[in-house]
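Write out this protein's structure.
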Amino acid sequence: MPIVSPSIAHPTLTEPTYVRPPFWKPVLAWTGVVTGGLIAVAAVATLGSDGLTSVAMALLGLAAALPGGWWLYCEHKDRVRAEEDFQLDRQAVLAGQTMAGYVSPDALGPLTWDTPLTPFRRRWPSVGSGTAALLVGFVALMAAAGPTPVPAVEPT
């Protein structure tokens, strides 16, 4: 999870913070999205030959792209939340510094609010179930399509 709380594993943190994920995670996510997109484009390209096989390929493309796309979406949401939290904290500190000489410290108390930074809910069981359902649909449609007959070449 990219938003981590202070713990034994992260002793330098004083509040929940966005931590950049390891390099391999975005690479794997983008690989799944691109592969799924290419499979979906291939499904659209073969739509004229066999509709059932094209739909099956589209389901396979969605199944390949769904987990990576969901991870990228959740990472984006976490980065946006972390940036908003950082901006709010910075504005509160700036407002406190600006008014420090004019107002009593008790009046500045409400300016230093504590905004809990929570990670975006990943919902991986739902995403995994959706991916599994897409894969089952792909297998069922491919089985229903059956083998494509290869025309025999007649000698001349």
